[in-house]
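Session log. Operator J.P. requested a structure for one protein chain; no other inputs attached. Running the standard single-chain path with token output.
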Amino acid sequence: MKNFILTAEGVNKTFDGFKAISDLNFYMDEGELRTVIGPNGAGKTTFLDLITGRSKPDAGTIQFGRESTELTKLNEYQIYRLGIGRKFQTPTVYVDHTVFENILLSMEGSRGVFSALFARVTPAQRERIHDILKTVGLGEKIDAKAGSLAHGQKQWLEIGMLLAQNAKLLLVDEPAAGMTDEETAKTGELLLSLAGRHSIIVIEHDMVFVRQIAKKVTVLHQGTILCEGSVDEVQNNERVIEVYLGRKHHHN
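Structure written below.
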């Protein structure tokens, strides 16, 4: 029996008569890096909202981890506590705090008063923060204010913040948006290096980036899975070509 980190079955979600998610079945292995693509309105963001408890499905089950915990019965905070971390497109870092402090504030059990918190950083915490910053390539920037970082560096800091939360499943929404080519390539390397120890879902539009990181690609269309496979399989799939390329001309 394979260990699925995430299983969604028969998931449906309608907003004001619009079916955002329709009979979705999704299975993801532990330690997998999965890329989810699809045209705008395909339901990608709604899917992440349902996993994190931001919205509740009208029908279906979403289960997480070896215990198959049913996420649809939990609130956002309980889901976050289980080890599901989400990174939105726009980085949300504490701009007036240093890179070090941003990671510290994200660490488990450190939701204290800021001043009290910084007064008593243990050597173990310090070491872990250094490790995380090395992982995300920000070791040199440890004392810099987060607000002074370049766009790409802010995104890496935010991925570091998810690592500090001990997230087992990372949900990463369009990380390549607004990045330079060099930053994009580095982000791809970072995500690839985290896979295995973490399970990661990346939603992305940039196909060059998808090609760099993708082992298995899931294509969403009209809230359901159109196909899954390698980048090549997906890009050569007749229905994917039609959805991505053919349809545009009819709607514009």
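Operator note: The longest helix spans residues 151-164.
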